[in-house]
Amino acid sequence: MSAEFGFHVADYVIFAGMIAFSIGIGVYSACSGGGQKTTLEYLVGNRRLKMLPVAVSLVVSFESSILVLGFPAEAYIHGGDLLWTSVGLMVAMVVSSRVTAPLFHPLKLTSVFEYFELRYKSKAPRYLGTVIGMLYYIFYMGIVLYGPAIALEAVTDFPFWASVFIVAGTAIIYTSIGGLKAVVWTDVLQCIIMTIGMIVVIVKGTMDVGDVGKVFDINNENLRINYFNFDPDPTVRHTFWSLFVGSIIGYSGMAFNQATVQRISSVKTLEEAKKILYISGPVFFVFGIIVNIEGLVMFAYFNVIGCDPVEAGIIRNANQLLPHMVVRIFHGLPGLSGLFLASLFSASLSTLSSGLSCLSAQTVEDFLKPRYKDMSDRKATAIAKVSVIIYGGLSVTITALIANVSGSLSQVSSSILNCFAGPLAGLFFLSIFCPWATKKGFLIGGTSSMLFILWLSLGSNFFTSAPSQPWLPPNPTDNCFLDSTLLANTTSMTNASFLNNSMSVSLNDVASRIVIYQNEMDVFNSIEPQGIDKLYSVSFRWFGVIGVTMAIVIGALVSYVTGIPPKDEIDVRYILPLGDQLFPYLPKKARRWLEFGVDFEKRIRWLEKQDVETTYPTDLFGELNIELYEIKEFDTVSSGNGPNASHDIREFD
Questions:
Q1: Which of 221, 232, 583, 611 has the most beta carbons within 10 angstroms of its beta carbon?
Q2: Residue 342 and residue 19: Cα distance in Å, rounded?
């Protein structure tokens, strides 16, 4: 990287300040309040955290370098239709407010997988769920670590592994010291930094292109405004169906994620827990719009200067596109490149710290406490802190593997993480809405679903001979031969002469580049995958849907065949009525049929015994005649097995 585009001292100061501030929050959290001496305080903040910071923390827990780098790169390469994933995610989070909060908040669980043991009265389902969930987070953190490392390497020649250890080390320090409270408040700080950084990039990039109209004109002429592809073919990489419908189902796993349940369990009331999910859905959508626009601005910018850095081989990875642009548009403006880098690292730190907190919670609640019931709380907390360091090391190992996988971070994360997230979401839906589900159905459905998606993901990434779908027409490379000094000067020109000339060259070449792309697509479409390649050709955007569906269908069928439990033995504390929760607009008779003969009045009586108030809310869906349960306030439950878990449900008849 030429010195012309190097970082200024101010950039390093801003970046280092963010790292130091994050660690400072961890130290403060460790020293304040109870000093993080109990697992209840360390893992769920004594269930007394404030609703708004927790909502912000939940959002940024899933807004990592995958979002900041991967989504703009995906929009640059394949167009802006990726926006539909954010719409689908918003819908998924709104739906989850009718499932996750009403079910899990009354149970006061620290580990979400404790639910499986309570539901099936067996430890085996709990261990399977925990293993799948831990694999998800370890791989997730490995992918997240990869993003900022390649970005910093691209713009400063800073060693890749040095970046990995800086990010991992920072997250390990403040998470191990401060627990969930530190994670929540550093997430708030990092959300602010991340948002400012992304908006500044959009504003400056648009100014260098000319105006908003030019940004969309350039993208439209180069086929990037492709929001309405309704092709039903499941092998097409991006369609409305795979992005929107696939995201609603595929991202439903986020509702049952340990990070989600851990946060809704850290607030006092069910109303606050539901508000966390109400807020997070639209905020996810707003971030989706921001990164989508970033990708379009980025394409327009490189079009204007007449140089596609990927096509020209200037950068080795499409995930380096955004940082490559940032150091150019902020050339001569000390501190702004550092702000972007701080926003990127903030996004990764928030996800890493959340993942480490979740893994430490699962280690203590799912493995230690069930085995060592006499373990002191102080010792369990110490082990939780040490486990943070161990899982941080494992995530670094995964980063080494991810570095060998090609594609944008968005593609890599979706194809790998859905191997675990899809089956796990299916297991939760099976357990919550299928009263006849049994332990055998759960274990067989979950295992078969995970192995199938894992095989499908590995095959599509490493063992297929089928060609990849061509990228949309790239930008021209006419001006890539210009030296860095001239290129730097063009990005800061307020005079439009150079920009207009470059745009003229680019636009005159659009037709030929589109023809080349169409010829590539004709060749791609003419090649019919053979044998197993037909299966490997399914778009990775459907992996989550397949995983969810397989776990539910196989689990339900196996349960039915091997013997469903008698209805009077079904513990309704751990299930919900399918019709009332997910299909409230159906006629009452249809909703009652979807209760499958289970007496959900028992659940109402149980909640009343726990000092709860039954309400009939109208939020989000209008006036409905359905049963939802609002908790006034629970006393803290110290047991690792949920409230009154040893009681038989028939006590409440």
A1: 221
A2: 8
